[in-house]
Amino acid sequence: MQPGNPRLRGFVQHLTGYFAIMVALVAINLLTTPDLPWFVWPLVAWMAPLAVHAAYAMHLFGKPRE
């Protein structure tokens, strides 16, 4: 894969957003209701679209457009 690949660039942006939001959600959860770890639900739920996006970025869904 070349560095200027738009699929890879989009995936890296998605992954960066995922980690930023998850860090914020964990912090909010631990500050508000530390006895109830509700942050796990969005963490797990967002992994499926992230995995699909990773597969798309790796060109597992057909040939890339040139």
Radius of gyration: 15 Å
Tally of strands:
0
Order of helices and strands: HHH
Helix content: 55-70%
The number of domains is 1
Oligomer: single chain
Total DSSP helices: 3
Mean pLDDT: 90
Helix/strand/pairing category: mainly alpha
The major β-sheet equals: none
* Alpha carbon gap, first and last residue: 13 Å
Shape: elongated
Please tag this protein with its features.
mainly alpha; single chain
Task: Write up this protein.
The mean pLDDT is 90. The protein has one domain (9-57). The radius of gyration is 15 Å and the shape is elongated. The chain contains 3 helices and no strands. The protein has helices spanning 6-32, 40-45, 47-57. Helix content is 67%, strand content 0%. The longest helix has 27 residues, at 6-32. It has 66 residues and is mostly helical.
Please write out the topology.
Elements: H1 6-32, H2 40-45, H3 47-57
